[in-house]
Amino acid sequence: MTDLPPDEPKTVETRTRVDPVTGTTAQVTRERSRSSGAAWWAAAIVLVVAIIAVAYVVTRPQTQDNASLAAATQQGAQTQAAQDASTLAQSQAQGLAAQVQANANAAQASAAQGAAERAQAAAQNAQDAARNAAATAPPPAGLDNGGPDNGGPGNGPG
Fold first, then answer.
1. DSSP-based three-state secondary structure for 43
2. CA angle, 103 as apex, 89 and 96 as ends, to 5°?
3. Higher-confidence position of 25 and 155
């Protein structure tokens, strides 16, 4: 019994083999069938559809018109201009911040120097006032500044 449908063309090959030792003969039959053309027809249809699809993709008209292309170009230019302006503003703000910081540092240094100068002047004035007060003040009561050792309290050995 064969698995092949009866309407397909087939080739039947029969061989007879003789065993020289035992002298027995064996007959071998092999059947081959050829495929039908249906597979070739399916492959041809797929190929034609693929060629039509490629031709359509290559030759279809462009969907963009010049107005939409110009609008997209203008939008891109505006976006780039906005980015450039933002970058410039950021750069200027950083420069201004650095300048303000430098001015603040200079003002702080100037104020510190002025305070130091005023403190030095006040110390000099206090020193001068103390010297003037010592020069013009009478000696304290009970102290004699006249002799080397007059035996008074706080003067000389005692």
1. helix
2. 0
3. 25
Using alpha carbons only, what angle is made at residue 54 by residues 51 and 59, rounded to the nearest 5 degrees? 120
* Closest to 17 (Cα-Cα) out of 5, 25, 9: 25
The C-alpha R_g of the chain, in whole angstroms, comes to 60
Reported confidence tier of residue 131, pLDDT bands at 50, 70, 90 = confident
Selected residue with higher pLDDT from 34 and 109: 109
pLDDT reading at 155 higher than 80: no
The residue among 153, 130, 158, 149 whose CA lies nearest residue 140 is 153
What pTM does this model have? 0.33
Residue that the structure tokens 């003002």 belong to: 107
Count CA atoms closer than 13 A to 7's CA, side-chain side: 1
Q: How buried is 129 (Cβ within 10 angstroms: 0-12 exposed, 13-18 middle, 19+ buried)?
A: exposed
How far apart CA 37 and CA 108 sit, in angstroms, is 100
Q: Give me the pLDDT at residue 1, please.
A: 47
Dist CA 111 CA 104 (whole Å):
10
